[in-house]
Design goal:
Layout: E1 2-7, H1 12-22, E2 27-33, H2 43-46, E3 58-59, H3 64-67, E4 73-76, H4 87-92, E5 96-99, H5 109-116, H6 123-126, E6 130-131, H7 134-141, E7 146-148, H8 152-166, E8 176-181, H9 196-199, E9 204-205, H10 212-225, E10 232-237, E11 244-251, H11 258-268, E12 275-277, E13 294-301, E14 306-313, H12 317-332
Parallel strand pairs: 1-2, 1-4, 2-3, 4-5, 5-7, 6-7, 8-10, 12-13
Antiparallel strand pairs: 8-11, 9-10, 11-14, 13-14
Helix pairs in contact: 1-12, 8-10
C-alpha cells in the first residue's frame, strides 16, 4: 500500500484521479491540495458525486512542506510553469512524482521554452523525467521517479501515428492531425468559449497554427522516427463533455491495403492492455468514455495515396488521470492495469 497526495484536486483531472484511486487496492489518498479559494472545503462539496466516498478537505500548496513526509508519491495537476517550483523539493524528499502538467514533458529546455515561453529553471530534474506514454516508453518509465504525463491530444495523436513513423511507412513531412476534444479539456473554470450557449451545437477550431501540444507531438514522433519532423496540428472544441478524436493523415511511401495496415497495428500493440485496434468500423468517443483505453482504426485511400488513422481516447482518463495511474503502477511495481479495468458506460 502506498500513500498518495494530489495537488490540483479541484480540477477535472484531479477529480478523475480521485475517482480512480478510490478503487485502487494499493493506494490510500492521504491529502488533497487545490487553489486558495478551495482551502478548507471538503472535496465532496466541490464534487457532490464524491459524497460518502472521501472525507478529505482541500489544503493549498503552502501546506506542501509539512505534508510531504506523509506520502510516498505526489500527483501534480497544475497549469504549466507551477510544478517547476515544487518538483525539486518533492524529489529531494525521496518521493515519486507524476506530473499531469506540461513542465516535464520535454527533456530539452530550449524546446520547452520555445513552446511555453519560460525558462525551465530545474534542468537537473528535467533530465531525470521520463515522458509517460507506457506503450512506447515503458522500460524507461519503470526506472524513474519523475513522470511527465503526456497531454491528451498528444496521447491520441502519438499512439495513432507511432506505428507508421516507427516502420517508415509515410513521408515524415506529410503528417496532419485534425483533432476534436470535449469541453472538459479546457478545464473547469468558466470562460466565454466554454459557456453553454457559445459551445452547444457548435464546432470551433482554435490555436490553429501554434497549439502547444503540437510541439509535444513533434518532439515525441521525432524521437520515435529518429528524424526531426514537423506536424500540422489543428485542435477543435466539440460540443461534448469528454473524449478526443484525432484523425491523422499521412502520405504513404508506397501503396498498401487496409488489411495489411490493420495487421501492422495489431502487431505493434499486441501486448498493450489499453490499446484496441478495430478492423472494419470507425471508433467513437463513446466507446472509450470513462476508460483508460485508446481505440484505433486505420485505412488507406487509394485515390490520394494517404493513410488515415482514427484514434479515440477519453481526455480525462487515458489523456490525463488514467494514464497517470498507469504510470504510477509502473514506477511502484504494481500490475499495470490495477484500478484501470473499467468498461465504458454505453450508450
Amino acid at each position: 500500500m502506498i500513500k498518495a497526495g494530489i495537488v490540483g484536486a479541484g480540477g477535472y483531472a484531479g477529480a478523475t484521479l480521485i475517482n480512480i484511486l478510490l478503487r485502487h487496492p494499493e493506494v490510500k489518498i492521504v491529502w488533497l491540495m487545490s487553489e486558495d479559494a478551495h482551502k478548507g472545503k471538503k472535496i465532496a462539496d466541490l464534487y457532490p458525486h464524491l459524497t460518502g466516498e472521501i472525507d478529505l478537505a482541500c489544503q493549498t500548496l503552502d501546506d506542501l512542506d509539512k505534508n510531504l513526509d506523509a506520502v510516498d508519491l505526489v500527483f501534480l495537476a497544475l497549469p504549466h510553469g507551477i510544478a517547476i517550483n515544487y518538483v525539486p523539493k518533492i524529489i529531494d524528499a525521496g518521493k515519486k512524482v507524476v506530473d499531469l502538467g506540461a513542465d516535464y514533458r520535454f527533456s530539452d529546455n530550449k524546446i520547452f521554452k520555445q513552446w511555453y515561453g519560460i525558462e525551465h529553471k530545474t534542468e537537473k530534474y528535467l533530465s531525470q523525467a521520463v515522458f509517460g506514454l507506457p506503450e512506447l516508453f515503458r522500460s524507461e518509465i519503470k526506472k524513474t521517479k519523475l513522470i511527465g504525463n503526456p497531454g491528451c491530444y498528444p496521447t491520441a495523436s502519438i499512439l495513432g501515428a507511432a506505428p507508421l513513423v516507427k516502420n517508415g511507412l509515410i513521408e515524415l513531412d506529410s503528417i496532419i492531425v485534425d483533432a476534436k476534444s470535449g469541453i472538459t479539456g479546457a478545464g473547469r473554470g468558466a470562460t466565454l468559449k466554454t459557456h453553454y450557449c457559445e459551445r452547444n451545437e457548435g464546432l470551433e477550431a482554435y490555436a490553429v497554427t501554434n497549439h502547444r501540444h503540437m510541439g509535444e507531438i513533434e518532439y515525441q514522433l521525432s524521437r520515435i522516427s529518429g528524424h526531426q519532423l514537423n506536424v500540422t496540428f489543428v485542435p477543435h472544441l466539440a460540443p461534448m463533455s469528454r473524449g478526443i478524436l484525432a484523425t491523422i493523415y499521412a502520405k504513404a511511401k508506397q501503396q498498401v491495403d487496409d488489411q495489411a495496415l490493420t495487421a501492422l497495428y495489431k502487431e505493434f500493440y499486441k501486448d498493450e492492455p489499453f490499446v484496441k485496434i478495430f478492423d472494419d468500423k470507425a471508433p467513437n468517443t463513446k466507446y472509450v468514455a470513462g476508460t483508460n483505453n485508446c481505440v484505433i482504426a486505420v485505412q488507406y485511400n487509394e485515390c490520394t495515396g494517404r493513410i488515415i488513422v482514427l484514434s479515440v481516447i477519453d481526455n480525462l482518463v487515458k489523456g490525463a488521470a488514467g494514464q497517470a495511474v498507469q504510470n504510477m503502477n509502473l514506477i511502484c511495481g504494481f500490475p499495470e492495469t490495477t484500478g484501470l479495468k473499467q468498461i465504458t458506460v454505453f450508450p
